[in-house]
Amino acid sequence: MRKEVVIRIVTWILRILCGGLFIFSGFVKAIDPWGTIFKVEEYLGAFGIPMIFPLLRLGVFALCAVEFIVGCFLLLGCFRKSCPIFAALIMVFMLPLTLWIAMENPVSDCGCFGDAVVLSNWATFWKNVILSAGILWLIRYNLKGICLISPDFQWLAVVASGIFIVIIELIGYYYQPLIDFRDYKEGSKLFATSEADDYHGIETFDVETGDDTNEEAENPDGKELVVMIPKISMVSPATTWKLNSLYEWSQENDVKMIGIVSGSTEEIEEWEDLSMASYPIYLADDSAIKEVVRGNPGVVYLDNGKIVWKSTLNAIDVDDFLGPEVSGDASTFARDNARFLRNCIFIYLIVMAFLVLISFTPRLAKSIIVGRLANRRGVRHH
Description:
Elements: H1 3-31, H2 33-47, H3 53-76, H4 82-104, H5 121-141, H6 154-174, E1 205-206, H7 214-217, E2 223-229, H8 237-252, E3 256-261, H9 265-275, E4 281-283, H10 286-292, E5 298-303, E6 306-312, H11 337-381
Parallel strand pairs: 2-3, 3-4
Antiparallel strand pairs: 1-4, 2-5, 5-6
Helix pairs in contact: 1-3, 1-5, 1-6, 2-3, 3-6, 4-5, 6-11
């Protein structure tokens, strides 16, 4: 096999591997932007860097989008010279960072693949070493492989990829992750009722006494709404009105409702006075709440102790739960995240396939014309 052919084969293999890693890393973090925000907060805390939340949120959205788009272009061979260089610049930052994390262990895991795949810190570092080596090869030889999307249409690929990944991020931020990589998936039990449970569940404590109240908080034989607030000081007065409306709806429709919150005693007492909440409130660790549901507040609907759906409160498309048009069945408040994600992926793949097709059409037409001319010349020669 000639050297040129070997180089092209290796180049395509590394495009697939390096591009696939960037795509996967950006996608799984974009699916759950809140989880990525929490992980970046850990990093900033380890470095002692003060956090400005709007900038942090913007940075997380940009990070996920850039990783995904770079991965797509490595895979498709777009921007054959500049894309591997840009990927190398990312690794210039990530490689020493993950080495420091592996040596100092300031966080339990790097979060490079979100909650989808958890790697040890040393495994993450060596993964980045191998990835960097592949990117260096592409810097040298990426021009040996063709680009699947013509340079004339690559800007459309940028727009399509950007729109797709930002939509995924916005849904994950304002509603819930379209794929749940955590333990508390739909169909699982929220509270631990025995040592035989698959995992321990969330521990709740009575706000006033501090006693363990799992048995009181759970409702294994009925329907229950669990409102979870990881940062009670950040809840607005308008939100408390919607919560009270939801509680009155639950009373009218034979659904138990409780609140599980995190905050200091003073913050909780102030919030109780402000909200005039009539439903029971329990205390839990904020990290446990974040593990169950995204949002502040988040809402979990249980049927016979099992999770049916999860949502942020604001994502439930009801302004006043006591309105005459509001359903009495809480299951109707759920969103079909799986179907929405399938539709988004399908539309995105169709757009990218169309760009590949129109990119190859002129090349295919040219090769056909050249082939016919060669045949005619051969006939005349004979």
